[in-house]
Write a structure and sequence with these properties.
alpha/beta, TIM Barrel, Type Iii Antifreeze Protein Isoform Hplc 12, 8-stranded parallel beta sheet, two-stranded antiparallel ribbon, 13 helices, elongated
């Protein structure tokens, strides 16, 4: 899926999630795209909604936010300060295209899917909270473009329902992102081994939408087979904004990408083979040597022959067969043992 889109053809597709970290400043959004590209990310992702497309402007107990960082306001008020103005998107995509980084966005309703289709995004994303919105998944999958589904809060049956809804609606390529919808997410809650389980069940690429602090969890996910890593990205955690407190800064993103590439190389394959350097080191293995002068006819004993480095003598496994046998010739201390000495 991503090999066709990602010109660098990296094994792990790294997404810098801009989300609300532009703080509704267009030039800041532009800077985030360019900086993500400088840091080595493969893609930048925005979110496409308005307060009116995602919730209602109602102030009652059902719409009040209780999160410690986002509380004391309604959902409508929160999203009003966080959404990306839609008239920015054409410019932002052009900036990303020129910078050589993939641009896409999470669609939160059908109008957002239509809007993003007009921008010709390469694929669509459905957020964890919308995973139960099967009509939205069906509509996005109907574009026949690859679809990324985040799975935070979802049970396996719910993931299956969303996955097969997408497949039936025409999404040939579906990627599932393991996700914990806590902000920030605690490492103890991540259960990254589920990546392996999801791969077995769904036979599709599995990634991680990571809301934990730092980069250690994301690197661990790559070692378990994650093919997509999504991290919220900000220019500075000191900036005001709803998502800054669990986002990573440029130096962290750069380090994450670099270390992912190292992990990819280190994972290699399951083939057991020696490197050229290892082949050169074989000579420093152990073998059987005379550790004192031995006269012809003397019996080999443990005080006369030993397994030591280097590996010019007989294999150490022959030691038990040599003990008790006689030397065929005189052997000087420090000489490797060979069959003709028996």
């Amino acid at each position: 899926m991503f090999k066709k889109i990602n010109k660098k053809n990296s094994a792990t597709f790294v997404i810098a999630e801009i989300s609300a970290n532009h703080n509704q400043d267009l030039e800041r959004a532009v800077s985030l795209i360019k900086k993500a590209r400088e840091c080595g990310a493969d893609a930048v992702k925005f979110q496409t909604y308005t307060p009116d497309t995602i919730t209602l402007n109602v102030n009652n107990k059902y719409f009040r936010v209780k999160h410690p960082k986002w509380g004391n306001r309604t959902l409508y008020q929160l999203y009003k300060t966080a959404y990306t103005p839609w008239h920015w998107f054409a410019r932002l995509k052009k900036v990303a295209d020129r910078a050589g980084i993939v641009f896409f966005s999470t669609a939160f309703d059908k109008s957002a899917v239509d809007f993003l289709e007009n921008l010709n995004v390469p694929f669509h994303k459905i957020a964890s909270f919308e995973l139960v919105d099967l009509p939205l998944i069906e509509y996005a999958a109907g574009t026949k473009k690859p679809l990324i589904l985040s799975t935070g809060m979802a049970t396996i049956p719910e993931i299956k329902e969303a996955f097969f809804t997408a497949k039936r609606a025409g999404a040939k390529d579906v990627v599932l992102l393991k996700c914990v919808s806590n902000y920030p997410a605690r490492p103890d809650d991540m259960n990254l081994k589920e990546i392996i389980k999801l791969k077995k069940i769904f036979k599709c690429p599995i990634g991680l939408s990571d809301h934990s602090l730092g980069t250690a969890v994301a690197l661990a996910a790559v070692s378990l087979g994650a093919k997509v890593i999504e991290k919220h990205f900000t220019l500075s955690k000191k900036s005001k904004g709803p998502d800054n407190f669990f986002s990573i800064e440029p130096q962290e993103l750069k380090s994450l990408v670099e270390n992912i590439r190292i992990v990819e190389r280190a994972l290699g394959s399951d083939a057991r083979k020696l490197t050229a350097e290892e082949k050169g080191s074989l000579v420093f293995r152990r073998s059987l040597f005379a550790v004192r002068d031995i006269k012809k006819g003397e019996i080999f004993t443990e005080d006369k022959i030993r397994s030591i480095r280097p590996a010019y003598g007989l294999h150490p496994k022959f030691l038990k067969y040599l003990l008790g046998r006689k030397a065929r010739k005189d052997i000087k201390k420090g000489m490797p043992l060979s069959k003709d000495m028996l």
